[in-house]
């Protein structure tokens, strides 16, 4: 869904745009699932569904908490900041994805146009003025160069690194995280969540992600108005592990849709996979 934008962020290098800023506890959710080993990269021929993973970790680091299907604690609102840790208005949605440093959030690329790192924050599980897992300042924004050059709706996704001043815990250790898959075919049942601009709480919906085109999903849910852009389409792509897996974020065609009842999302493919690997390399380096 469209958000208000202004200004032009500075260009990064290579296939990404990176904007940096100076860096600005609670027990993990009971329903999060602790994996004894990292997700492995899985490639299926034909339709080529790929389940992506974070880099190899030490034995201690491999106890990464990934969310069971249906959890939304990893979803949060993106806010502008009026001063350090002082929230302005929320304008889009994001969600925590798996990384070794535990500081990575995915959203829509059009959400960060006109917003700079250090002047926005991610607030997971936000609701009615409460933020149980704190305020996390965005330290870097990473977008695909094809989005930056042409705002191609098929590349409408971005990664954010975040930091909480004074915290000894990572964001992911508090909220859990979602896996990412690329090349997932249409027809999957998804849970979708987001934060409308006019509401002070999350909306969510279950429905089928249909094919709008070869590169875009479409789903029908009421109440997904401006502000829900960047919200994840969560699918249980591997019933054996039952984990939340992001297969798209609200955006793409018409920046997510022109009505509150029909929304769109770019289908994750090779460009998203490459950007995720770049984001993982940046993650942990403020």
Report on the structure:
- Mean pLDDT is 76; it is low at 2-48 and 55-65.
- The chain has three helices and 18 strands.
- With 286 residues, the protein is mainly beta.
- A hairpin with a 6-residue loop joins strand 3 and strand 4.
- The two termini are 30 Å apart.
Q: What is CATH's topology name of the domain at 179-266?
A: Thrombin, subunit H
Class of secondary structure makeup: mainly beta
- Specify the biggest β-sheet: 9 strands, mixed
Let me know the average pLDDT.
76
**For this structure, what is the CATH homologous superfamily of the domain at 179-266?**
Trypsin-like serine proteases
Radius of gyration: 17 Å
Count helical runs.
Answer: 3
Q: Specify the overall morphology.
A: globular
Task: Supply the CATH class of the domain at 179-266.
Answer: Mainly Beta
For the biggest β-sheet, the strand order reads 3-4-12-17-16-13-14-15-18
Overview features:
mainly beta, six-stranded antiparallel beta barrel, 3 helices, Thrombin, subunit H, 286 residues
């Amino acid at each position: 869904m469209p958000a208000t934008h202004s200004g032009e962020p500075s260009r990064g290098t290579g296939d990404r745009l990176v904007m940096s800023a100076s860096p600005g506890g609670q027990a993990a959710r009971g329903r999060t699932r602790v994996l004894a080993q990292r997700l492995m990269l899985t490639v299926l021929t034909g339709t080529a569904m790929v389940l992506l993973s974070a880099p190899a970790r030490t034995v201690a680091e491999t106890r990464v908490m990934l969310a069971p299907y249906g959890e939304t604690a990893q979803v949060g609102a993106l806010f502008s900041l009026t001063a350090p840790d002082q929230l302005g208005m929320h304008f889009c949605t994001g969600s925590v994805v798996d990384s070794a440093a535990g500081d990575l959030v995915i959203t829509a690329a059009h959400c960060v146009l006109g917003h700079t790192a250090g002047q926005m924050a991610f607030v997971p599980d936000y609701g009615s003025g409460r933020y149980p897992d704190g305020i996390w300042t965005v330290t870097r924004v990473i977008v695909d160069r094809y989005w930056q050059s042409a705002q191609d709706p098929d590349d409408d996704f971005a990664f954010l690194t975040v930091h909480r001043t004074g915290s000894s815990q990572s964001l992911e250790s508090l909220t859990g995280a979602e896996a990412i898959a690329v090349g997932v075919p249409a027809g999957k049942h998804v849970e979708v969540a987001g934060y409308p601009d006019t509401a002070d709480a999350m909306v969510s919906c279950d429905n089928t992600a249909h094919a709008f085109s070869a590169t875009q999903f479409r789903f029908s849910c009421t109440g997904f108005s401006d502000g829900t852009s960047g919200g994840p389409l969560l699918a249980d792509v591997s019933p054996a592990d039952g984990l939340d897996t992001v297969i798209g974020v609200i955006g793409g065609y018409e920046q997510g849709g022109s009505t509150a009842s029909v929304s769109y999302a770019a289908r994750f493919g090779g460009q998203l996979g490459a950007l995720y690997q770049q984001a993982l390399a940046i993650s942990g380096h403020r």
